[in-house]
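SEQUENCE-TO-STRUCTURE ENTRY
===========================

Subject: a protein chain together with a token-level encoding of how that chain folds.

Sequence line: the amino acid chain in single-letter code, read from start to end.

Question of interest: how does this chain fold, as expressed in backbone structure tokens?
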Amino acid sequence: MIARIEQDHQRFRQIVKGKIRGDLRKFLSRKELIGREGKGLVSIPIHDIDTPTFRYGDNSQGVGMGEGPAEGGGDTGGDEPGQHLLEVDVSLEELADILAEELKLPRIKPKGASRLTSVRDKYTNIRSVGPAALRSFKRTYKEALKRQVMLGQFDPDNPIVIPTKPDLRFRSWNEVKKPQNNAVIVYMMDVSGSMGDQQKELVRLEAFWIDTWLRRNYEGIDSRYIVHDVAAREVDKSTFFSIREDGGTRISSAYHACKDLIAQRYNPMEWNIYLFHFSDGDNSSEADNRASVKLLSDDLLPIANLFGYCQVTSAYGSGNFINVLHESITGSQTSRGGREADSNLVTSRVNSRDDIYDSLRTFFAAGK
């Protein structure tokens, strides 16, 4: 019975995953997912799936065949079918795998050697003392069986084995240092006056899926957040997505702050570095465009696995900075952004929630 229930549960999970895959573009743009995130799970509302239920009692009359309400007994029910809405919990790892399947994303190959290590307890030994929670039934049984055989107390016709205290065996552990690929993600966002709530909502959605995919590829992730207008500063995650500013824009200030953060905390020989900048492309001057490009070329691109520039459309921004990057670094201009094969720079345009699907594929298609 338990095996049958497990099979049914697995089949139900496959149905759920199929629904998510079929509507992935829609799910990518649902801001409600972020609010439902907790402890590595996301609650996803799914239409038109019936929850498996048990039925009790005599169903010989069928469903709904009892007496209806008497005439004049009040309001009658509607005759339209209801909408089936089921919330299911899906792990972020499952979401990342679905994302990879649908966008055909390769797994990321970390750069360089793994120099960081994590200490883990590995149960490799057996000893005669220990806590009850670590008792090894198999080894205890074997010790008791050996003792009874040696003493002539074992009866094959009545094979009862009763362990005594000297027979008890417990698992013990050693601390094992395991090489681990770690990564840091630095999110940078323009919070000047031309970046409104709509633009920040697009950034929040894109960042959620970037984080989900990278965490599926690395055991250890640090996420850092930098906001900028004419000056830049590091903030926490909550502030990053809620801050409101009203000023001009100097993109180079964010790249300076990012450069300093990496230099102080993240050795490029030990960390896989992912940098993402979100802006409406409206910079303060041509001089700052040149300063920003120089910082990218000389300091950030050489140390990063990937630098993703995501430009969100704003009615108040010029949207020119993405063209500056194409002309100065990738040497090409495209309508939606893109990458050169030998460059760590990837650019993407996100005009609406529907563009997040293609933007993620653009960022991670090369498996960097």
In short: The two ends are 46 Å apart (CA to CA). Residues 2-22 form the longest helix (21 residues). The chain has three domains: 1-52+84-104, 117-177, 182-364.
